[in-house]
Amino acid sequence: MTTGPRLRATLLGAVAASSLVAALLTGAAPAQAAASGPCDIYAAGGTPCVAAHSTTRALFGSYSGPLYQVRRASDNTTRDVGVLTAGGVADATTQDSFCAGTSCLITIIYDQTSRNNRLTQAPPGGFRGPAAGGYDNLANATSAPISVGGHKAYGVFVAPGTGYRNNNTNGVATGDRPEGMYAILDGTHYNNGCCFDYGNAETNSRDNGNGTMETIYFGNNTIWGSGAGNGPWIMADLENGLFSGVNQRNNAGDPSISHRFLTAIVKGEPNHWSIRGGNAQSGGLSTFYNGVRPNVPGYNPMKKEGAIILGIGGDNSISGAGTFYEGVMTSGYPSDATENAVQANITAAGYTTTVTGGGPVLNPGTSVSLRATTACCTTRYISHSGSTVNTAVVSSSSSSTTKANASWIVRAGLANNACVSFESRNTAGNYLRHQNYQLYLNANDGSSLFAQDATFCPQAGRNGQGNSFASVNFPDRFIRHYTNLVYTASNGGTNAFDSATAWANDVSWIAGTAWTP
Q1: Strand partners, 443
Q2: Cα 335 from Cα 328, distance rounded (Å)
Q3: CA-to-CA distance for 202 and 74, rounded, in angstroms?
Q4: Which end of the chain is more exposed for a tag (fewer CB within 10 A), N or C?
Q5: Per-residue model confidence as pLDDT tens for the chain (517 residues)
Q6: Residue 349 is inside which H or E element, if any?
Q7: 202 counts as catalytic
Q8: Catalytic residue (choose from 202, 214, 239, 506)
Q9: Between vectors from CA 358 to CA 357 and to CA 359, what angle results, nearest 5°?
Q10: Closest CA to 321 of 136, 458, 168, 476
């Protein structure tokens, strides 16, 4: 019998998982064999995955199919991105090569189980999205660069208006049937919008009443519920309520949690549910709630409908923000021991923020210069004169002031630690930031807007040299020099500085050693 890659991966993964069963039955976290992935561990615990989504790695030990699909702007063609080896991490070079010189969007996040519960562009529902026909935006494929197991990978960067969905799933829990789910998220990228969710939602993209959803929520929205401190919190979106425990509003047992890589878990069965979480880079899981359903009518029994959403609310509410790396949904209520074993697998995967982006590693604290690569301008560097950011010719014979103006301290991105911000070396506390698409040097005022405007995500240089830097809040715009000034520019547009002519060259920069005064 001929089998497809997902079915082969599922069958082989089940065989690999059998060696884990004994350890799980004793409540111990088994040693992580190279051939086991999170879904092998769930299968061994009797709660198999019915959906497995990731843009960063395989979630079955033998999975060798595609992780996600990208579409490039230059010709609207698509390309699947798979893994380097069976059971391994994403082959990011496929994306980098395919998207070189243009921008790409993530069009499909494949389901690694045999059930084909893939995620695609979310349709309109109770709310309309900003894309054509009321659909939600698709995520820019290069906005969340990270490293997994020492290899470059990309997450799914969800800006408000971005969303993925599948309203016609196979095997996902409905009614009051038990299920579990986890997601690996960026614990530093969130907002108070409704709602950055992953999990089980309505099949018509509308609010169908209390108990028609069961998803992981991450953010600091306080309209419906909250935990201890100021957030963000892992909560459950159960429709018409974000719940942190049994009470409708505040539950002090649900702590604020903001690990750079965050494991978030929600699971539910008849009149019983739980929230768990931890650091996806090290350590174990903590249980933040474990008890009966909320003490509000409509949530016992549950009325789950079985759609899957990512980045949005069940009614397609689209104001949430976050970054997703991997997640699964299970059939059955997983034991804590099974989840503890999954957490051990996650921490062993090696999530980090160290990304080369095709050029030198831009480590926070390093001082750098940023040199243009366009043939006309290879002696020019990003510099500043007061608050004006320009490109200036700099050489070893330049004045101390000229050299200092063209030197920058790399900082962890103010709005996203996976990206970077550039602080002036000679004007402490002042950063490169864009305003009306032009770059300026301004003092950090501590606002969320400033943090977004001053954060840029490094990628492989669009012309094959050095790095290109995408704006975190306008991910289709890159730092570009134009007539010796500096902008965030798209590849074609109504502004003169968006000209497609020489765009790939103008947005590519060599990050070198900072100038010595």
Answers
A1: 430
A2: 15
A3: 35
A4: N
A5: 333 434 334 333 333 444 444 444 444 443 333 469 999 999 999 999 999 999 999 999 999 999 999 999 999 999 999 999 999 999 999 998 998 878 899 999 999 999 999 999 999 999 999 999 999 999 989 878 889 998 989 999 898 999 999 999 999 999 999 999 999 999 988 999 999 999 999 999 999 999 999 999 999 999 999 999 999 999 999 999 999 999 999 999 999 999 989 999 999 999 999 999 999 999 999 999 999 999 999 999 999 999 999 999 999 999 999 999 999 999 999 999 999 999 999 999 999 876 544 444 577 888 899 999 999 999 999 999 999 999 999 998 899 999 999 999 999 899 987 789 999 999 999 999 999 999 999 999 999 999 999 999 888 788 878 889 999 999 889 999 999 999 999 999 899 999 999 999 999 998 888 888 7
A6: helix 336-349
A7: no
A8: 239
A9: 95
A10: 136
Q: Which of 239, 394, 346 is nearest to 302 (CA)?
A: 239
Write the Ramachandran bin of 493: left for phi over 0, alpha for psi from -120 to 50, otherwise beta: left
Run of H or E residues at 265: strand 262-269
Q: What are phi and psi of 2, to 5 degrees?
A: -85, 135
- Number of Cβ within 10 Å of residue 120's Cβ equals 15
Please report which residue ranges of 329-472 form alpha helices under DSSP H.
336-349, 400-405, 448-453
Residues 6+ apart with CB under 8 A from 436: none
pTM of the model: 0.72
Sign of CA dihedral 505, 436, 260, 157: negative
Catalytic residue from among 179, 315, 453, 506: 315
**What is the spatial distance between Cα 75 and Cα 232, in angstroms, rounded to a whole number?**
40
Q: Which pair of tokens denotes residue 13?
A: 């993964």
Tokens of 327: 């997640």
* Annotation marks residue 269 as catalytic: no
Cα of first residue to Cα of last residue in the chain, in angstroms, is 70
Residue pair 94/81 in contact by the 8 Å Cβ criterion: yes
Within 10 A of 270 (CB to CB), how many other CB atoms are there?
Answer: 15
Peptide bond into 364 cis (omega under 30): no
Cα atoms in the 13 Å half-sphere on the side-chain side of 506: 25
- CA–CA dist 403, 411 (Å, integer): 19
